[in-house]
Write a structure and sequence with these properties.
2 helices, single chain, Alpha-Beta Plaits
Length: 94
């Protein structure tokens, strides 16, 4: 994504087994409850990152506030993994 304005990044736990795009979209629908507020999603599989671009920044900030930057993802194996949510472009780089 070249323009990361109104964009969050969901960083899935690196220990989590492979996640399909279908499961990621289901997770976005069920956990984040975003309907018409998304203009684009980008999945970066090897880094286990999902970028979600919002149509407006108000809803993005409300989501960050409501989740306190962390949610869970339940894998098909039944195990739960942490997902860190932050504004794209300001996460810690290694």
């Amino acid at each position: 994504m070249t323009d990361r304005q109104n964009t969050i990044v969901c960083a899935f736990d690196q220990r989590c087994p492979r996640i399909t795009a279908h499961h990621i979209h289901e997770w976005i629908h069920e956990k984040l409850r975003l309907e018409d507020e998304i203009s684009m999603t980008q999945i970066v599989g090897p880094r286990r990152r999902v970028f979600i671009k919002f149509t407006n920044g108000v809803r993005m900030h409300r989501l960050l506030q409501d989740t306190a930057g962390t949610l869970e993802f339940k894998h098909d194996t039944g195990e739960f993994y942490q997902v860190q949510i932050s504004i794209a472009g300001i996460e810690i780089r290694r």
